[in-house]
């Protein structure tokens, strides 16, 4: 039931602080230590490489997972689009471990990969929101997202739940392997900061609605740019805008724009920079300037510690590994309000189904 909300999507965006808190309750002890079964951790410990598989938004959550697993566990991690992996299987390492990300647990493209993985005799984990779903039943292990039903076709709370759970799992695996970075990573504290941070952002939704109305209602196209995990989030931000507001949007590595795509920038084209990583903040800012010199209408989503006067949306500070959990929220709201103010059916965009059960 969507209660007083006009659409499920907004309700689901608003639920994200609670989803973060619930994951901490379910998967962390009172002292903040991950509670993950030894069996699963032992299987993962033996792996020399992690393969994350997903589609759409779940694939995008996997991209952020790569950063988490590699930083906290030092295990090389590859992320694959399931429809590609199924028929163009990469060369596998000696001891692969597979993680399937799927909100519904029913995505046919991902299931096709899991069938192959099982035929090869490999172990796997499905991270899903739906208990007893196909991908959950057929994988060796399951971790549930506990995000509550996600009804809107555009996935929001499943994305942040997947990333938060990947962070908990990476912390657990890194600690089981005595990795100092993992020992120092206080995932409970971080999830607390994230929950309060998301709350602060959703409390500012009126401001984001004004921004969406001013910049996205009449544009045929838009660009999100960033580097590293900010680039990962830019892909998710663009997908959200495309699927519910029908604005042609691209997410881009900010350094790549000047290698061709900058030719598309015209007077007024919105270019949104996501800036949460200290090492590359200056670079993305100069890439934004380059587009501005060609007439782009630039907007910024920036972590507080990196913010400058004139930035549009400022995100409360969290560990640089966790910033996607915050930076994605304004982009969800931008997509929502653009769709809403265009008078579209936010929850049921054209041509799309909530779970895609055909290949
Ligand atoms: O249920 P899944 O997570 O496996 O679904 C994967 C994609 O179909 C899904 O994320 C889709 O891209 C959403 N509509 C994005 O908002």
Could you characterize the architecture of this molecule?
The longest helix has 20 residues. The protein is an alpha/beta fold and 359 residues long. The protein starts with 7 loop residues before the first helix and ends in an 18-residue tail after the last helix. A five-stranded parallel beta sheet has the order 2-1-3-4-5, sandwiched between helices. Helix 11 packs across helix 14. The structure holds 5-amino-5-deoxy-1-O-phosphono-D-mannitol. The site of 5-amino-5-deoxy-1-O-phosphono-D-mannitol has 16 residues, from helix 4 and helix 12. Keywords: Aminotransferase, Cytoplasm, Glutamine amidotransferase, Repeat, Transferase. Its main location: cytoplasm. It is found in: Cytoplasm. Catalyzes the first step in hexosamine metabolism, converting fructose-6P into glucosamine-6P using glutamine as a nitrogen source. It catalyses: D-fructose 6-phosphate + L-glutamine = D-glucosamine 6-phosphate + L-glutamate.
- Show unreliable segments: none
Please outline the major beta sheet: 5 strands, parallel
Mean pLDDT across residues: 96
Gross geometry: globular
Q: Tally of extended strands?
A: 10
What proportion strand? 15-25%
Ions, cofactors and other ligands present here are: 5-amino-5-deoxy-1-O-phosphono-D-mannitol
What's the order of the H and E elements?
A: HHHEHEHEHEHEHHHHEHEEHEEH
- Strand order, largest beta sheet: 2-1-3-4-5
- Amino- and carboxy-terminal Cα gap: 31 Å
- Roughly how much helix do the residues carry, as a percent range? 40-55%
Keywords: Aminotransferase, Cytoplasm, Glutamine amidotransferase, Repeat, Transferase
Enzyme class: transferase
Subunit structure: Homodimer.
GO cellular component, one term: cytosol
């Amino acid at each position: 039931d969507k209660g007083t909300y006009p659409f499920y999507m907004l309700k689901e965006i608003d639920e994200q602080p609670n989803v973060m808190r619930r994951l901490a309750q379910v998967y962390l002890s009172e002292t903040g230590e991950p509670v993950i079964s030894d069996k699963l951790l032992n299987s993962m410990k033996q792996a020399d490489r992690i393969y994350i598989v997903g589609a759409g938004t779940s694939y995008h959550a996997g991209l952020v997972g790569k950063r988490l697993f590699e930083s906290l566990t030092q295990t090389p991690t590859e992320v694959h689009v399931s429809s590609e992996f199924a028929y163009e299987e990469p060369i596998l390492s000696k001891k692969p471990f597979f993680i399937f990300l799927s909100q519904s647990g029913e995505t046919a493209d991902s299931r096709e990969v899991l069938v192959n993985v099982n035929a090869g005799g490999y172990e796997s984990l499905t991270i899903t929101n739906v208990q007893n779903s196909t991908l959950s039943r057929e994988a060796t292990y399951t971790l549930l997202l506990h995000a509550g039903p996600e009804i809107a076709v555009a996935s929001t709370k499943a994305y942040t739940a997947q990333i938060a759970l990947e962070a908990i799992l990476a912390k657990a695996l890194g600690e089981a392997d005595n990795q100092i970075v993992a020992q120092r990573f206080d995932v409970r504290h971080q999830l607390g900061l994230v929950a309060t941070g998301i709350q602060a952002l959703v409390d500012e939704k009126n401001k984001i609605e004004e921004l969406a109305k001013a910049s996205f209602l009449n544009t045929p196209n838009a660009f999100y740019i960033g580097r590293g995990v900010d680039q990962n989030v830019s892909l998710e931000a663009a997908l959200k805008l495309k699927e519910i507001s029908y604005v042609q949007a691209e997410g881009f590595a900010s350094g790549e724009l000047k290698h061709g795509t900058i030719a598309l920038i015209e007077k007024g084209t919105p270019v949104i920079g996501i800036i949460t990583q200290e090492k590359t903040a200056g670079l993305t800012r100069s890439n934004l300037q380059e587009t501005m010199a060609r007439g782009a209408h630039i907007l910024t989503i920036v972590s507080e510690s990196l913010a400058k006067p004139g930035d549009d949306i400022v995100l409360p500070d969290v560990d640089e590994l966790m910033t996607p959990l915050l930076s994605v929220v304004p982009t969800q709201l931008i997509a929502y309000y653009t769709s809403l103010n265009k008078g579209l059916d936010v929850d049921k965009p054209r041509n799309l189904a909530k779970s895609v059960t055909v290949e």
